Fold each of these.
Amino acid sequence: MIATATRLVRTGLVATAITAGAAVAGGLAAGPAQAATQTPAGFVTQMQCTGESGTITYSPGIYGSNVHRTNAALSATLTGCSDEFGGVYTDNGQLSVNLSGKSSKATGTLSGSFVISWPASSHYNPSVGTATLNYATGTLSLSGYTSSTSGAWEGSYVSTNMLVTGHKGAGTKLHPITQQSFVNTTPLTVQHNIG
């Protein structure tokens, strides 16, 4: 039964596993015990990386108080990754995001696509998807969804928050900010809504 439940969780059919578990429990106990085997619906964390550091590069650079179009490339190293099945990985993963949108020195919203290459020892395929990056002075917030048709953790919600720790450029029109370095303030998390 445990092997079956694990296999079902991997494919996202948690409700089926819960129902099957309740049916087995039904042979051992009355109705109230059956209800106790069920769990409330919500988000289940599938993968999490507690450490994240990297850079985001803007082209053209961002400056002033008026938003203008820019492209951005974010690259980060992921550490402290673990999955919902108890796997803990000591090697690093990688987050790469290509974005475009409008930003000033103080605020902006960019959107695009991402690839998360999980630690090699996890043997998970990379996760791919689309995300939005919100930028407000000193902070970056990334959220989006993995592809529902390819890659690890299909159709799951991805999120992380970051703190800017340094930058290149003064943020003026003559010397725009072309790059920021950052570390995370919340883990990079992949979650699936089980309904």
Amino acid sequence: MPLRVLIVDDDPSFRETARRLLRARGLAVAGEASDYEEALAAVRELAPDGVLVDVHLPGIDGLEVADELSRDGVGPQVLLTSSDSGGATAALAEQRGAVGFVPKTELANANLERYFSRAGTGSDSS
């Protein structure tokens, strides 16, 4: 069974792009959310293996989403992304409970399977 990923981004065109990218990599898209509240509800309802979260969400940033989703240590793996390559760093993302940070411009070349592995192998810099 493929790993199931929830996409959290307020930009519908990016969600479509991410959906295609994830599916092309053999990952299943569990669902989509455009903000923090939708993301939390979707995680509870859909129980995805991973969550791809934009750092810049309306009302709350993706770092806070990562904090919330990783708080109990049993939630989905969170990978942060942003069109702003300086929006976060892998180290900051990991401090907040995420498995890493990948700029949106680098998602197509990143090893997404590694970030969203069931074993939780952690991140790399690609």
Amino acid sequence: MTYKMYLLRHAQSADKQTGQSDKQRILSPSGKKDAMLLGNFLKTRNQIPDFILTSSATRALSMSAIVAHEISFSPDLIKVEEELYEATPGIYWDITRGLDLHHQRVLITGHNPAISAFAGELTGTSIDMKPCELACIQIRKKWDHVAPRSGTLDYIFNPASFGNL
């Protein structure tokens, strides 16, 4: 059985406002547009996850909700994972190895530098994810047996690089 991991760095966020914590930063207007384009990309290519995990940061939650809307995925089914905010690659490993085996296509929305580092460790390649960039990785091991270099990078997609779809 092949599993699919979609690693998604949140889209461009707005500047931090006075009195606002980093965790409370929202998506910029262009970030929202890119999130919609990314969701549309997934939908038109039938690349629909069956489970979505997201960081608890406002910008990541918004990103996941917009993508979920575009792919007709119920936002109520998005699981907020507190540890993904200020995560390390080790946290991504722990979360991945703890995934329920009936989920075959999982999307995780997170932040740099950890999401890029995890994608690189998982595939054995150097990956520097830009805002709103999606790395699709094929995994031929069960989630609880995932190890470094056990994934193969299928593609990286960034709507800002491709304009309107």
